[in-house]
Amino acid sequence: MADKMYYPNSELTREAYCASMEQYKQMHEKSIKEPMQFWGEIAKQFYWETPAIEDKFFSYNFDLSKGDIFIKWMEGASTNISFNLLDKNVKSGNGDKIAFYWEGNDPEDYSRLTYRKLLEETCRFANVLKSKGVSMGDKVVIYMPMILELPIAMLACTRIGAIHSVVFAGYSSDSLAERILDSKAKVLITTDGVWRGEKLLLLKNICDEAVAKAKKHGHQLESCIVVAHLRRLNNPQAMDVANVSWDDDRDVWWHDEMEDAEASCYPVWMTAEDPLFILYTSGSTGKPKGVLHTTAGYLIYAATTFKYVFDYHPGDIYWCTADCGWITGHTYVVYGPLANGATSVIFEGIPFYPENDRYWSIIDKYKVTQFYTAPTAIRSLMKFGDELVKKHSLSTLKVLGSVGEPINTEAWLWFYNLVGHGKCSIADTFWQTETGGHVITPFPGATPMKPGSATFPFFGVLPELLDEDGRVIEGEGEGYLVFRRPWPGMMRTLYGNHQRFQNTYFDRFNGFYCTGDGARRDADGYLWVTGRIDDMLNVSGHLMSTAEVESVLAEHSSVAEAAVVSKSHPVKGQCLYCFITPNAGMTFDEKLQIELKKKVRERIGPFAQPDVIQHAPALPKTRSGKIMRRMLRKIAAGDRNIGDTSTLADETIIQLLFELRPCV
Ligand code: PRX
């Protein structure tokens, strides 16, 4: 079943930018053999204040024995991203075109923003940032729900060369504080609060806690700009709760500041490798990594992947359900669509509110043509049965996208047959915060699809599979997924820690960027990403490290040791399964389990809450003290086929852990 091919429908192929595998292969070959000509041609669609220096268009080093790793695209060029996304579209006659339709959590709340208005608001807010002392290179943290002020804030940063760091507004105050501290941010932008479904989140209060924690560690945030989002909802209940605490020296309302701000702002010209944004992602050692993306390469890569992978044409209505707190929201809610003058939908809410068919009704309401979401969302909606989908026409859809984790065949087929009526192409896009944009993906008008396979590399991308010893696996086989050379949208470093960047991604296999994922190549050359091969977990498409959760658990005064592994989960893909060794004299009871779950929610965020907490009087360790996670994963799965246990210091522990395993 999994190997059956699904061919793009002929209507899609007829209008596609890339309409056949031959065309794809030719373009891919050109992108590899003549990167300067290939990307140089694409770059012509954008405005450059100064052009790139020809013989410095592309340079890199992936070989640690030759010195530090570096990646440079379009050296010498200077531009401004907001200028290309906004002014250029307005100047070319698209000022009245809708950039964003906004759909609120409550179906009664909706609005829209044209390119002209988006430019004005961006300039206004850029002037507000300037009035707060923000200038080129300063860091601005954004902790906001999916409202229009979020892309405006991001674009305003790019207007003046400030570096934005968007933190998902589901993270705890600890996680936010850690990110404020690491980036030494000057300004924080937030809202009074937000309704997510029927749940109220008081974001400003979380920010206050985070700012206080950052202050304790010696970092003083200068300003906090607050959108009165709850207050403007005209909902009396919302207004009651929106009486947020206020520090007159630090806090200002967005609307007060915007009132007198000028609607034009001359863009700051940034050089090609100037930082554009930092986005934190989980690292396997626990401390989040500040992935840094730069200007020119990211712009051309976001624009090109968006255009080809969603096959976006003028008049199409595109909707990506991702939050701007993740890379998908950066590249495929903000930068990629606007660089193509696209019209997109931004949705504030959740798929289950007010009813479980909210996604389908939004698709019909806006006549969405490209719909991009995550396997976990698809699986959670499958649960409600087919009737909720069939109630809606969904006839405008052409391309369906999937991202965040491997998509299982069942979910793929449901998406394809039911949502896409068997006529839409599915783009199963493999990529990472680090890759900036899609790196392995089908082309909707060209690539015959196999459910669960991300298929082939995007332009400029050269994947390889390596064995344990770093030998390249040719043809069919399975191994470590690595890339041989950089493409324009790839990360450049980890903010403030180039050494960690080199160690994390280039140490394991010299000469290659190591993704941390495993993959298989089948007889037809299709790539199948099999998932993480390091100590990372992917829960509902959210990447987190076992170390991160373990260190939070181990902080509890009753806990001597904690080990966290992943367990497969029907909706979330993976969930957290924690083994806890209590301190001597401490009991492992329900109270402790509740406290530990709460602690993880508070410290990391609600999405990180463990599903299972198991008592482990001891952990299976080698004689040198290394925890055998492989065995813990088997115990979590209830799989008694544990393999060789002779390397364990105490083999009896395995039997004991099976006995203590709760019924899950
Ligand atoms: O394990 C891979 C998985 O998500 C990881 C990257 O997570 P993050 O940086 O948070 O970015 C997510 C959105 C791009 C990868 O290392 N992953 C992402 N997309 C896929 C995937 N695994 C399989 N198939 C995919 N399409």
Automatic annotation (TrEMBL):
CDD domains, alphabetized: ACS
Catalytic class of the enzyme: ligase
Domain AMP-binding enzyme C-terminal: 548-626
GO MF terms held by the record: acetate-CoA ligase activity; AMP binding; ATP binding
Domain AMP-dependent synthetase/ligase, residue spans: 93-494
Keywords assigned: ATP-binding, Ligase, Nucleotide-binding
InterPro entries: Ac_CoA_lig, ACAS_N, AMP-bd_C, AMP-bd_C_sf, AMP-binding_CS, AMP-dep_synth/lig_dom, ANL_N_sf
GO biological process: acetyl-CoA biosynthetic process from acetate
E.C. numbers: 6.2.1.1
Catalytic activity: acetate + ATP + CoA = acetyl-CoA + AMP + diphosphate
Start and end residues of each Acetyl-coenzyme A synthetase N-terminal domain: 24-84
Record-stated family: Belongs to the ATP-dependent AMP-binding enzyme family.
NCBIfam families: Ac_CoA_lig_AcsA (TIGR02188), PRK00174.1 (NF001208)
Protein name (database record): Acetyl-coenzyme A synthetase
Species this chain originates from: Trachymyrmex cornetzi
